[in-house]
Amino acid sequence: MTSPILLAVEGLTVSFDGFKAVDDLSLYVERNEVRVVIGPNGAGKTTLLDLICGKTRATDGSIKFKDTELTRLAEDKIVHEGVGRKFQTPSIYENLTVFQNLELSYPKGRTVFGSLFFRRTPAITARVKEIAEMIYLDDDLEKSAGLLSHGQKQWLEIGMLLIQDPELLMLDEPVAGMSVVERERTAELLNRISTNRSVLVIEHDMDFVKDIAHKVTVLHQGKVLAEGKMDDIQKNERVIEVYLGH
Amino acid sequence: MDKPDTQALAASRWMDKFGGRGKLIQILIIAFLIMVVLPLCADIFRLNLYGKYLTYAFVAAGLVLCWGYGGILSLGQGIFFGLGGYCMAMFLKLEASSPENTAIQSTPGIPDFMDWNQLTELPWFWQPFHSFTLTLILIVAVPALFAFLIGFAMFKRRVGGVYFAIITQAIASIMTILIIGQQGYTGGINGITDLRTLMGWDIQTDFAKYVLYFACCGALLLCLLAGQFIINSRYGQLLIAMRDQEDRVRFSGYDVANIKIFVFVAASVISAIGGAFFTLQVGFMSPSFVGTVASIEMVIFCAVGGRLSLIGAAYGAFLVNLAKSSLSETFPQLWVVAMGALFIAVVMLFPRGLAGLVDDYAGPVRRWMKETFKRPQPAPAVEKKTAPPASNTSPDSAPILSAQESH
Amino acid sequence: MGGYTGEELTAIFLMQGFSGLSLFCVFLLMALGLAIIFGQMGVINMAHGEFLTLGAYITYLVSYLASDTWPFLLDYYFPVAIALAFLGTFILGYLVERFLIRFLYNRPLDTLLATWGLGLILQQIFRSVFGPREKSVVLPDWLMGSFQASDMVDIPINGVMVVALTVVMTIGVFFLLYRSRWGIKVRATTQNRAMANAAGINTEKVDRLTFALGCGIAGVAGAAFTTIASTGPTTGSLYIVDTFLVVVFGGAASLLGTVASAFGIAQSQSILSFFLSGSMAKVITLMTVVGILMFRPQGLFASKVRR
Asked: Where is the signal peptide (chain C) (predicted)?
């Protein structure tokens, strides 16, 4: 094992026409850590994920993943490095089946010609089934993904990331709009998949955060307001002020 | 029992690569129609016309790939049709302009229109077209390169949707103006005419017309097969996925721009092959097949046939052109209105085109036939069907036929 | 351009610049309506040229009526013609939105095809009603002639009139979009339809009026067009590709950009055409525009938005 730090964000800044959505932000995520980022609306949480996965380009600062600088890398190359990102609203391929959704995310045949001459092997089928079981969708493999319930769609998207076996998994509000039961199963899922990878989660649901977080980072106006164990964060006066005063 | 079974499985796997047995049968039906029925029913004059319509089927098939599946509407497919056609025409023209044939010109050995425009020397970009091999390569390479450049510039910067449509239309317009304006190099508005022989072989005899017609049919069938292969591969699924959720594809580690560039280039190359056959069968090439009007009509060929069906698009191109020539012969004014109405109707009433209509009406009939004439199925066959999961999930069984645009 | 002296060059630029000005006016007048329909609503109206043609034909009818039946009205028909051209195209636009565009809002590429079809039908109707040959209006006396600015430069009055009309309309559209209550509604609807609905804006009505207004502006453009050129069934469609390029090049939602890009394209085309053939001037201008668009797809004037 090399350095325990998997992701190092330093001095990260992005401005949209003068408005700094993320402002001189630094953040370190260790290997096998589940980190939850919380904060009021407009704190820059989603922008932070956008910056890490390359959807938005940083104005300043650096994002080091293992030994690679991500700020200049193309989106698909960032994925190849081992960063997976789930969007806030479930983005899955509604016109394809669950099986096809998962298979299409399998990290093989990613070039034009690779995908043209892609052949399904028994290993791939097995892997798809394994993931489907993990995300509670093993009975719906042939179902068109558009027909899944909202919660199932969220799981499917998580599964589409898991099949790529990323070292860093970033989830944007994974339990938004889920029922209590679905929420519990999602927490269980997250706890299970975080044993050999780091997970960076944005979440509002404090009970859920308590269930999964190793460490919590509070963002406010694009800056880190506080960082630490959930219990400490809940006692932090500035955090209380920001949340209640908002 | 075991061995033939695995053989059957291998055969069905092989057929799945092209969309399954059903699609292959449909292609065979087309082959039968255009290579047996039409030649038997029509004299060579008509057949030559039909061959001309079929060249548009190439373009329509290309549009199914890039517009129907890729969601990229190109209003400049005439450019590529024209490039293919002009490449072929330039070769034929050079052959027709041998020094012996053009002895009366002030500069023998160059095409007549160059002589009329006071050119004394063959321009450099005409030189490669002395060689037939080089010409064949260029028919594919020139449009491919051009499409690659446009695609690279646009898709790498994430330009798509209506912007792409408008810009390709502008490029088609520029091409036409350029060809018409540069008479001395291109033959101007009349195009390149008086094409008679291909490597010494008179292409205006009835026999030659038959040969060219069948060659065109063969090429079309190959293009349809290639297209079927593309849309039934993982790449084809990616195209559908990209229309649904472009960002998800991108953040699953794919370079979305490359995927789009490829489908655009593929569509252009197929169109160019059609253009080359057009020149061969019609005997000339002119800028009127390149411009914005021609290009947008090509889109309608595709839409009428069904933008998500390669086979449908081939029928669409043929039928619209058949209707066009028979209507415009008798009622020229009516044709323009009919064409306009067709644009509106295909968008408003049947966005999935003929293929969609066939699906809607033939589907229940087929199901009814299956129910009625169901043969008792042997038990192992049922098991076999469930054994390989998802092996027969061709994209057309999924409800991708909702003709929604992503932009 | 080695053979010209500085003085000659200035004169050439002035003369070509003025002839470019009328091209600029046609571009801008057509682009104004498009900028509203495409820039604000995201609808591709390929029949926009035919709306211009319709406006021009209406003007022709009015002038014909005036010169034929009531010659004493000839001097005054033009304002009436403008009003009628606006009204006619406005109504047609309203109907088109109601029966066609409305169903296609989430399918922009399909709108493009449907309106192209509409354009074909309109062209054929024009051809049947007015004949394939171009028609010219009878200009009232006060629009004819020219005034002598200097002994080298001669400015036709109808040209001045078109420029004036263009300026007035541009300012009018600007105020309508950015300073009126209706403009706020239009922009609110563009930016967030659901929210606008929730805020009590009848977005369907806004859409219909916006589209109709864009078409009405095309009609006025047609009326202005008649004073500098004659009208044929395909007059409008000749400009549609260029005008779309003008709008995209300017940055679809920016009025200032539209003005700048119409000016730039018209002027460079016109000035280049003195040194090269007209077709090459057009090719070079359009190629430059397409080339720039490939590097700057958002157009000249577009604000950086948070995605």
From this structure: none
